[in-house]
Design goal:
alpha/beta; Metallo-beta-lactamase, Chain A; 7-stranded mixed beta sheet; 8 helices; 21% helix
Length: 256
């Protein structure tokens, strides 16, 4: 049994968007206020975060997380990685933080966050990380759980999703190959990005997401990485098929 908490369900700008007068950005419904996309996965006393965006500090304070066992990255875009510096409080208490991502992602981080990822001339206040380079070709063990990376395409950029038991998290998806879809059979819960109703070049829109869900047939599906252009949470929720739901920040789920 794992517990999954949505730390953030918004797109790269979050909702509300700075300076926007769009009705969804002005909504008073808490479910229409979305931090940048990330999840917390927990079992026994393990805390695993997928992605570490610019709202990471706020998310960790809100969840009152006391320790962090690892971070798995989907890809290197800023809305999924810009909170890297805020791993410091965990590092000061526990030492180097395990981080998992593709070779390309880790190479990118070594350039962008050189003061963290390089051991040369280390600044005393900088955190350290324990780097694990992974690929979609091999599953791996993390604290007793088998993790299966699933490669999807974000336009032409390869992105990793993660299957843990019968739960799978896929964000920034536009296409999934038939080969990778084989990894998505028999799911209890599928979390899938769904940016808006209009077609987008690098993200699934609502029609495309629902089509993929119908093909994969998970027991339950939750849509995330949502733009204000999708519409109001309560209104869009009434338009969805049974067992498909809009996720929202702080929502918690359990999966076998």
């Amino acid at each position: 049994m794992i517990k999954v908490t949505f730390l953030g369900t918004g797109t790269s700008q979050g909702i509300p968007v700075i300076g926007s007068t769009h009705p969804v950005c002005l909504s008073s419904d808490p479910k229409d206020k979305r931090l940048r996309v990330s999840i917390l996965v927990q079992w026994e006393d393990i805390n695993l975060v997928v992605d570490c965006g610019p709202d990471f500090r706020q998310q960790m304070l809100r969840e009152n997380l006391q320790h962090l066992d690892g971070i798995m990255f989907t890809h290197e875009h800023a809305d999924h990685s810009a909170g890297m510096d805020d791993i410091r409080p965990f590092f000061f208490r526990q030492g180097a933080i395990p981080m998992y991502g593709s070779q390309r992602v880790m190479d990118n981080f070594t350039q962008r966050f050189n003061y963290i990822f390089s051991n040369e001339n280390k600044y005393p206040g900088a955190p350290s990380v324990d780097i694990h380079r992974i690929s979609s070709k091999h599953s791996f063990d993390f604290k007793g759980k088998k993790i299966t990376p699933v490669e999807v395409l974000h336009d032409q950029l390869p992105v990793l999703g993660y299957r843990i038991d019968d739960f799978c998290y896929l964000t920034d998806v536009k296409t999934v190959s038939d080969q990778e879809q084989e990894k998505l059979k028999g799911l209890d819960i599928l979390v899938l990005n769904c940016l808006r109703k209009e077609v987008h070049s690098s993200h699934l829109n609502l029609e495309e997401a629902l089509h993929l869900i119908e093909k994969l047939k998970p027991k339950r599906s939750y849509l995330t990485h949502i733009s204000h252009l999708m519409g109001f949470h309560e209104e869009v929720s009434t338009e969805l098929p049974p067992n498909v739901f809009l996720a929202y920040d702080t929502l918690s789920l359990s999966s076998t």
